[in-house]
Amino acid sequence: MKDMSCSHCPCDGNRPFTLPAEWVADIDGAAYGVARAAAVDCVSMDLFDRWIGSGMHGGMHYMENYRELRGDPRLLLPRARSVVVVAFSYYHSDQCEGNLGRIAAYAHGDDYHDEVRRRLERLAARIAETCGGTTRVCVDTAPLPERYWAVRAGVGFIGRNRMLIVPGGGSYMFIGVVLATALLTASRPCTMHCVGCGRCVDACPAGAITDDGVDARRCLSALTIEHRGEFPAGTDLCGRLYGCDICQRVCPHNNGLADTPIACFHARDSLRELTPEKILDMEQADFSAIMRRSAIKRAKLAGLQRNARLLCRDGKQSHV
Hints:
Layout: E1 2-4, H1 21-25, E2 31-36, H2 42-53, H3 67-70, E3 82-89, H4 112-131, E4 133-138, H5 146-152, E5 157-158, E6 164-165, E7 173-180, H6 199-203, E8 209-210, E9 213-214, H7 220-225, H8 246-249, H9 269-272, H10 276-280, H11 284-290, H12 300-314
Antiparallel strand pairs: 1-4, 2-3, 3-7, 4-7, 5-6, 8-9
């Protein structure tokens, strides 16, 4: 959290300051917008409560915590007036090739938590230096509904697979937020909607995409990353080793995308050679070295080896 006083600010605190587009371009943001900090609307909170109440969050029990904070960003940053949302592309055209196809594309490069935070800290510093006040950067590290705020800030809309879709940019996006006490010019909320083609619903091999949300108890991404312990009998990972992009691959909004300009989000060579058999032979030291600065660390070696064992046992090692 940063607090900077400024005696020569171009914004007087009552008139909003318009965030320059070049500030976002300087950090390679693909899209951005600003929403006024306020309580999350009751409809959205009710939908979240029903999703939790039905158990569709699976083993992600941490999502049951901090409901009050989730419902109002001003509780995360006192006196916050602006929610700045920036989307960063991680798409790379070779993300389905060979062994990479078993691993969700977001995890092919460096850990987005660190890289997106570094970039947003630069943006937050410029906001504070220009407008004064306090900022807080959130990159999947606070109980903040980023996709909700992305829609409110006009960055994109939500698909049936509950991914944020940026018009013209697709859904292979990381979302980061800068909360600011400065008053920034708000964007218009995105009014576009998913066309409802149903491709993601039909393509999901686990049938996890429902009218009530994504069922994490079935979702291959949640199972391979968040589930702890052994899988229930009959679990089929459909060739997935870590995460799943099937619903994104079939989405028409992801056709013809340009590669991300952020080099560290491109695939690591070490992952191109990673097979289930090699994972089963890994020692902790190998895992720590290969997965250094990688989001794959979240599954831990035990989780990754559990996934690999199931793939080898079932003989499903095709590049899905």
